[in-house]
């Protein structure tokens, strides 16, 4: 995939997309008790959805998969601190990420929730056709690399492992 094969999401587009995504969730009748954001890319969308859905319980789970532009580990890996799955017991949970690319991250987190939650649904800004998981809610579909407004600039501090996103 060439660098020119990118889809750019700007802050104004993010505002429109997150409100539309929240409206899709609300119109479906699903009322999450908890919004669970997958860090790092899903944190900003999760916060926006939690506000729009008037859900005050916002949890996070850290998963590493991407190491660079279209470069990833073999499998996604949960990173500490680990969420206690019993905190999700009997809750309606909306799992939020920025994109369902391969779908493996969403699958990992959904499997983590299984057996604890009353119901789990997934929401992403973008889904890609190759995703092994069909998100319950998606704002758009693309097969391009997506540049998000929160990761378009390089980090201001180099911690020795910063990946281009």
Task: Give a brief rundown of this model.
By secondary structure, the chain is of the alpha/beta class. Helix content is 23%, strand content 33%.
Which helices and strands, and how do they pair?
Elements: E1 6-8, H1 11-28, E2 34-39, H2 43-52, E3 58-68, E4 71-79, E5 92-100, H3 104-113, E6 119-127, E7 137-141, E8 145-147
Parallel strand pairs: 1-8, 2-3, 2-5, 5-6, 6-7
Antiparallel strand pairs: 3-4
Helix pairs in contact: 1-2
Polypeptide structure, described:
It is a single chain. The chain is of the alpha/beta class and 165 residues long. The protein has a six-stranded mixed beta sheet with strand order 4-3-2-5-6-7, sandwiched between helices. A two-stranded parallel sheet has the order 1-8. The mean pLDDT is 89. InterPro entries: PRTase-like (IPR029057), PRTase_dom (IPR000836).
What structural keywords apply?
six-stranded mixed β-sheet; Rossmann fold; alpha/beta; single chain; 33% strand; 23% helix; 165 residues
Task: Tell me how many strands there are.
Answer: 8
Average pLDDT metric: 89
- Using only C-alpha atoms, the radius of gyration works out to 15 Å
Can you count the helices?
A: 3
Would you state the CATH class? Alpha Beta
How far apart the termini lie comes to 14 Å
Question: Sheet bearing the most strands, described?
Answer: 6 strands, mixed
The CATH architecture classification is: 3-Layer(aba) Sandwich
- Low-confidence spans: none
Order of helices and strands: EHEHEEEHEEE
Helicity range of the residues? 10-25%
Percent of residues in β-strands? 25-35%
Domains, number: 1
CATH topology: Rossmann fold
